[in-house]
User: Which sequence fits this backbone?
């Protein structure tokens, strides 16, 4: 059984940092591209960042580029999202998701696997 389990969310003040983790079981995180997507309250899904199957390519939404960093540890079967200089606009539920192929640069209509999400709240 495949599971993606996110952790690391929480409440933080503007300008703060969080590190999200995605623990995979039943599937290797380098099987396909891994992505972070988020959903703000009352809004649709937004693609945030992705890392290619090989790990050699990373992509970021314009809204997070320069502040967020995606990484992957194949040995631990984990994917991470380091988020710095957070703003209230970054609030939402963050999901890690495995694409069906090597798409790591945009939102897909569906993902092969997706976790249950971890909530991030940025507020003063």
Assistant:
């Amino acid at each position: 059984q495949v599971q993606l389990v996110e952790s690391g969310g929480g409440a933080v003040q503007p300008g703060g940092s969080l590190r999200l983790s995605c623990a995979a079981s039943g599937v290797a995180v380098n099987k396909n591209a891994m992505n972070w997507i988020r959903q703000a309250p009352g809004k649709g899904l937004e693609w945030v960042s992705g890392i290619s199957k090989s790990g050699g390519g990373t992509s970021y939404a314009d809204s997070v580029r320069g502040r967020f960093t995606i990484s992957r540890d194949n040995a631990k079967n984990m994917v991470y999202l380091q988020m710095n200089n957070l703003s209230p606009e970054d609030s939402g539920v963050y999901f890690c998701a495995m694409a069906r192929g090597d798409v790591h640069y945009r939102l897909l209509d569906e993902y092969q696997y997706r976790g249950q999400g971890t909530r991030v709240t940025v507020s003063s």
About this structure: Residues 38 and 46 are 5 Å apart (CA to CA).
